[in-house]
Amino acid sequence: xxxxxxxxMYYLVIYDIASAKRLPKILKICxxxxxxxxxxxxxxxxxxxxxxSLQAELKTxxxxxxxxxxxxxxxxxxxxxxxxLGKEKNxxxxxx
Amino acid sequence: xxxxxxxxMYYLVIYDIASAKRLPKILKICxxxxxxxxxxxxxxxxxxxxxxSLQAELKTxxxxxxxxxxxxxxxxxxxxxxxxLGKEKNxxxxxx
Lengths: 96, 96
Hints:
The structure is a homodimer. Chain A contains two helices and five strands; from the N terminus they run βαββαββ. Chain A is α+β, with helices and mostly antiparallel strands. In chain A, β2 and β3 form a beta hairpin. In chain A, α1 packs antiparallel against α2. The longest helix of chain A is centred in the middle third of the chain and has 14 residues, at 48-61.
């Protein structure tokens, strides 16, 4: 069997959705691909295919003039430290 | 004159504040140190002193049992790409 290494990248995704009606749709899409971190933010590892698929799904639901979704794509998670003040809402993380 | 190089680190800060009353206080503190990105998120470069000062100020205002502030501390911003879907709410960024 020819096993190809599938390269993954690390993502932090934050969104700012202007309409309360669109919000649950965006949340649902993000949950399919990533881990919820806290209000309006997700983290996770994605292959190129998953990343493009997530983008494509989000594009069909957001209002481009009002909403904003930002992907921080990290090549090496080792250079990112995560420091939490207050309550840790989800302990699953790709950054330490 | 003895010029010391002041080392800076790059930060993405996201917060989830449970009370609408505390929210403007947190926003005001973050604005003093960082650039606003979108709803509940800030970016910027900080020296160690600024970083500790920001943390100390936030600690006096958040409710540790209900609120959450996350600092993503990035040593090398070159390994982070920023991709925006929809509206770019603020063009000032430390990641490209």
